[in-house]
Design a protein that fits this description.
Rossmann fold, ten-stranded mixed beta sheet, 10 strands, alpha/beta, 19% strand, elongated
Length: 297
């Protein structure tokens, strides 16, 4: 049997949150691949709505028992996860309650330092997973959240980290490099020049000057945080749109963004259009929380 060796800076335990939909198989495959690569324990969780139990008859003692839905979910977890996660230290959990809070609670209880979920939508979760649940986790979770879209054909090879030169985006870069040190990484930022069309003089020169400043800010951030070998890139325009275009054009298989920051890119991820941005992402997305912001919201 091959020894499993935990790597420093890699999660000791990963929590996969699944609604048991077929699309979540991609998240399961990625979580299993990560757990194998890091020698981590894998906790697989599904959350169902609490069952409404009939009141006990007079004189009958109150009994706590699992609902039929919970029993069915547990059976499906054993059937679906067992063969895929063979050789791993796996824990299967079914919990009744509110989805976001249950995921966060199980992650804390089980010592998981990475959350993984898919883009599936299923009635078990009550609402679209990429709507309220991811938005809730982005606001409240203490762990990075990996939203899986693509099949796990290979380890992540090209990573794009969004940056607005804030401490939050610097932390996102730190986490990306710690988790995926072998991936080719690019620090990407977007810039804009308001009222460019109303300016007189050398507009192209002004654009080039702004782009140079954005690239220099990225290089300074890399220098401050000791990340050698990371490329920098910048593009003018809407941050979310330019990020999608850059990730698609470079063949990135993972985009990393901070869930808190000082620019429009990060506020969008927390605001009402979080579903739009994540739905449009061309690849998997890792949301990295800022510890100081966990008490907010």
């Amino acid at each position: 049997m091959q020894d499993i060796v935990w790597k420093p800076d890699s999660p000791r335990a990963i929590l996969l949150a699944t609604d048991l939909d077929g699309r979540c198989d991609r998240a399961l495959d990625r979580a299993v691949a990560l757990a194998h690569g890091w020698g981590a324990r894998l906790v697989v969780l599904t959350v169902i709505e609490p069952a409404i139990a009939p009141p006990p008859r007079p004189g009958e003692p109150t009994r706590l028992r699992a609902s039929e839905a919970a029993l069915r979910a547990a059976a499906r977890l054993r059937r679906d996860v067992g063969p895929t996660a063979e050789g791993l230290d796996v824990e299967l959990v079914v919990r009744e309650g509110e989805v976001g809070a249950s995921i966060a609670a199980v992650a804390t209880e089980s010592g998981c330092s990475l959350l993984v979920t898919g883009v599936a939508r299923d009635a078990l979760f009550g609402r679209h997973l990429l709507g309220s649940t991811v938005d809730w986790l982005a606001r409240h979770s203490r762990q990075p959240l990996l939203v899986v879209r693509d099949r796990a054909h290979a380890p992540y090879a090209r990573v794009v980290v969004a940056s607005d030169a804030s401490p939050s985006s610097a932390r996102a870069l730190d986490v990306a490099r710690a988790l995926f040190p072998d991936a080719a990484t690019t620090l990407f930022s977007a810039f804009d020049l308001p009222y460019l069309g109303m300016r007189d003089g050398d507009r192209e020169g002004a654009l080039e000057q702004a782009r140079t400043a954005a690239l220099q800010a990225g290089r300074e951030l890399l220098l401050q945080h000791g990340h050698a070998g990371v490329d920098v890139a910048a593009a003018r325009g809407d941050a979310a749109a330019r990020l999608r275009e850059f990730a698609t054009g470079t063949g990135a298989d993972l985009v990393v963004v901070a869930s808190h920051g000082r620019s429009a890119l990060y506020h969008l991820l927390i605001g009402s259009v979080a579903r739009e941005i994540l739905d449009a992402s061309p690849c998997d997305t890792l949301l990295v929380p800022e510890p100081k912001a966990r008490g907010e919201g």
